[in-house]
Amino acid sequence: MSVYTSELNQEMCFCSYFISVELLVLASMTSYVVSYESIPGRMSPLVTTTLALINTLIKASDMVPDSKTLTAFEVWIISGLVQVQFRVLPAL
Fold first, then answer.
1. Helix 39-63 to helix 19-27 angle, to the nearest 10 degrees?
2. Is residue 4 part of a domain?
3. Which of 16, 37, 60, 74 is the most exposed, fewest CB within 10 Å of its CB?
4. Rg (CA), the chain
5. How many CB atoms lie within 10 A of CB 74?
6. Between these two residues, 78 and 17, which has the higher pLDDT value?
7. Mean pLDDT (whole number) for 17-22
């Protein structure tokens, strides 16, 4: 009977991904500070944050073991993407 052991450092993953995703989501709130009439000013932090979160999702997906379903790690990053996209909707 073989037991799979993960070689991921849990503290490194927590600091590198979980906290950074939440900080990116909080940074996307800066779009509320910019006046509503300045559409490019409101959209640029949101687009930048979206691209950073997608890049983080791709990198994190390469780190976790293969699975047929989404892991909690990936769900956390996708939920951050959804939160940022909800901030894009009023600007459209």
1. 170
2. no
3. 37
4. 16
5. 15
6. 78
7. 83
Q: Is residue 87 part of a domain?
A: yes
At 37-72, the pLDDT tens digits run 887 888 888 888 889 989 988 887 787 777 788 888
- Is residue 75 assigned to a domain? yes
Q: Give CA–CA dist 35/80, Å, rounded.
A: 24
CA–CA distance, 31 with 27 (Å, rounded to integer): 8
Q: What is residue 65's three-state secondary structure? A: coil
pTM: 0.74
CB-count exposure of residue 15 (10 Å: 0-12, 13-18, 19+): exposed
- Our count of domains for the chain comes to 1
Query: Is 83 among the domain residues?
Result: yes
Residue 48, domain CATH = 1.20.58.390
Q: Which residue range forms the structural domain that includes residue 31?
A: 10-91
Kindly report the backbone phi and psi dihedral angles of residue 13, in degrees, each rounded to the nearest multiple of 5, phi listed first: -65, -40
